[in-house]
Amino acid sequence: MIAPPPGPTLLGVDVVLAGTVLAAIAALAMVFAIYAAVTVKDPMAKRVKALSARREELKAGIIKQASRKRQSLLRRTDTTDRLKGTLESMRVLQESQVKAIQQLLAQAGYRNKEFAVAVIFARMVLPVVLGFGAIVAIYWLDMFPEWGSFRRFATFAGMVIAGYKGPEVYLKNKAKKRTDAIRKGLPDALDLLVICAEAGLTVDAAFNRVARELGRAYPVLGDEFALTAIELAFLTERRQAFENFAYRVDLDAVRGVVTTMIQTERYGTPLASALRVLSAEFRNERMMRAEEKAARLPAIMTVPLILFILPVLFIVILGPAACSIADAFSPGGSAGS
After folding, report:
1. What is the DSSP code string of 39-105?
2. pLDDT at residue number 87
3. Which of 70-79, 224-233, 326-335: highest mean pLDDT?
4. Distance (Å, rounded) from C-alpha 296 to C-alpha 33?
């Protein structure tokens, strides 16, 4: 039985097999894209549920006695109490550290402040767990015998550092994405606030209106405006509601809006004119950031162009010629000629 002739190869790789694999990957990516487009979930469903829970907490904090108010607002659990007791017994729980983690959690979108104890506990436990796992895998089981001593120690140190910095890095990245999403929609929100203020709506009603209008386009910003409106309605001091807004968002523009709101509440200055000036300023800043990104684009595209686009062009242009030359100089090709 005569074996079928081998297919064309390029740099020792079967071209037909490589093309089949790439076509299969492209088909799977297309199916996943269609599935993601068809199964679009409502981005506001989960947020509305969280805001409703916050409204109920504020109601409970007002109705209940002062001794039970703090427990209701903090949503303490047995697990977090045990973790906090363990950390306090080891003398590793500092109040300043807890406050910093709580603010980072708020900026990342986590409402429960008690998660700060869990984050501190994870920062203490994960380095030990990952470091012990690296020691077992690298030194005891010897899963990588070809590694040298320096590479083994570097891997162990990297696992320990990743365990210590991992939770904080994750929260900072999530807070940064959330802050960027709020920054994009803030000028539009201020324009709507100006329209609502000129129409005669109160600050509470204006925040509610902006949250409803921008909830789908900017769900994170709509969430923050809705929560601020709820706190304006339930907290005894309206200033505290605005300060909570600035506390949850690490953005200078939001702090400027909060300062303007507080001054308007205190001195009775016109709200629409101040917000109009802020909106124009934020729009100019957004345009400047867009122009800056556009100016950096040629330098940023240089590396992807060299690594991904030019090799593909070379393969497409020189691939057929290389296959023909390889077939001509192969033993089967020279015998046939």
Report:
1. SPPPTTHHHHHHHHHHHHHHHHHHHS-HHHHHHHHHT--HHHHHHHHHHHHTT---HHHHHHHHHHH
2. 56
3. 224-233
4. 30
C-alpha 20, offset from chain centre: 35
Distance CA 172, CA 178 (A): 10
CA distance 149 to 155: 10
Average pLDDT of span 120-147? 84
Dihedral-angle region of residue 7 (phi above 0 means left; psi in -120 to 50 means alpha; beta otherwise): beta
Question: Which pLDDT belongs to residue 173?
Answer: 92
Per-residue pLDDT reduced to its tens digit, 189-241: 888 888 888 888 888 888 888 888 888 888 888 888 888 888 888 888 888 88
Q: What is the rounded CA–CA span in Å between residue 187 and residue 254? A: 11
| Residue 87 vs residues 125, 131, 168, 252: alpha-carbon distances, Å | 11, 20, 18, 34
Mean pLDDT for the chain overall: 78
| Alpha-carbon span 28 to 31, nearest angstrom | 5
> Over the Cα atoms of the chain, what is R_g?
29
Q: How many CB atoms lie within 10 A of CB 79?
A: 11
Enumerate helices (H) and strands (E) in the chain, giving the number of each: 14, 2
Classify each residue of 162-197 as buried b or exposed e, where b means 16 or more C-beta atoms within 10 Å of its C-beta.
Answer: ebbeebbeebeebbeebbeebbebbbbbbbbbbbbb
Q: Is 64 exposed, middle or buried (CB count within 10 Å of its CB: 0-12, 13-18, 19+)? A: middle
How far is it, in rounded angstroms, from Cα 113 to Cα 73?
Answer: 9
Angle, nearest 10°, between helix axes 149-198 and 252-267? 30
Is the Cβ–Cβ distance between 251 and 221 less than 8 Å? no
In angstroms, rounded to a whole number, what is the distance separating the alpha carbons of residues 158 and 323? 44
Q: At what angle do helices 45-63 and 219-234 cross, to 10 degrees?
A: 20
User: What pLDDT is stored for residue 188 in this prediction?
Assistant: 86
Give the pLDDT confidence score for residue 105 in this predicted structure.
86
